[in-house]
From TrEMBL:
Catalysed transformations (reactions): Exonucleolytic cleavage in either 5'- to 3'- or 3'- to 5'-direction to yield nucleoside 5'-phosphates
InterPro entries linked to this entry: Exonuc_VII_S (IPR003761), Exonuc_VII_ssu_sf (IPR037004)
Cell location: Cytoplasm
Entry keyword set: Cytoplasm, Exonuclease, Hydrolase, Nuclease
Protein name: Exodeoxyribonuclease 7 small subunit
Keyword Cytoplasm belongs to the record: yes
Main location: cytoplasm
Subunit field text: Heterooligomer composed of large and small subunits.
Provenance organism: Thiorhodococcus fuscus
Gene name linked to the record: xseB
C-alpha cells in the first residue's frame, strides 16, 4: 500500500509568484468557469499562506527589537 504525502508548503516567495500568475490568468478572462473557480480557490490558499508567513516574520521582528531582556513571543492581533 503506497502512502500519499502532501507536497511541502511553498515558501513565501513561491506562493507570491504563483499567486501573481493566477491573478494574471484570471484577469485575462480566458479561463472556463470551473478553471476560474479552481484558480480562485488556490489563490485563497496561497494568500493565507503569505499572510501566515508575514505574521510570523512580524512577530520575529517584534521579538528581536524588544528592549526587555526577557522578551518572549506573544500573540498579537493582526487587525491593529
Amino acid at each position: 500500500m503506497k502512502k500519499t504525502t502532501n507536497p511541502p508548503e511553498p515558501t513565501f516567495e513561491q506562493a507570491l509568484t504563483e499567486l501573481e500568475g493566477l491573478i494574471d490568468a484570471l484577469e485575462k478572462g480566458e479561463m472556463t468557469l470551473e478553471d476560474s473557480l479552481a484558480a480562485f480557490e488556490r489563490g485563497i490558499g496561497l494568500t493565507r499562506r503569505c499572510q501566515q508567513s508575514l505574521e510570523a516574520a512580524e512577530q520575529r521582528v517584534r521579538i528581536l527589537t524588544d528592549a526587555r531582556p526577557s522578551a518572549e513571543p506573544e500573540p498579537f492581533d493582526i487587525h491593529d
